[in-house]
Amino acid sequence: xxxxxxxxxxxxxxxxxxxxxxxxxxxxxxxxxxxxxxxxxxxxxxxxxxxxxxxxxxxxxxxxxxxxxxxxxxxxxxxxxxxxxxxxxxxxxxxxxx
Length: 98
What we know:
The protein is mainly α. It is built from 5 helices and no strands. It has helices at residues 13-16, 28-31, 38-48, 54-63, 76-97. The model has no long low-confidence stretch (mean pLDDT 82). It starts with 12 loop residues before the first helix and ends with a helix. The chain is globular, with a radius of gyration of 15 Å.
């Protein structure tokens, strides 16, 4: 398993500083459940509700769409829908500006 707390080559320390405060530290297996393991998904999301950097985590995952697992209290599917809605919203705003 990859160490999500290690910055990627292209990330600056400032971009990932929030990871130091993540409630999931030491519990990574919980956040990368096997397909269909809804019990583990619920457990991970419950931990996310206690996290002080949940918003930063979610923003990170939305900006780095290739990330698997639970991030910021959202599943891959939920984040995919959020990214689509963000794109559609941006397209809609551009059309209104014309």
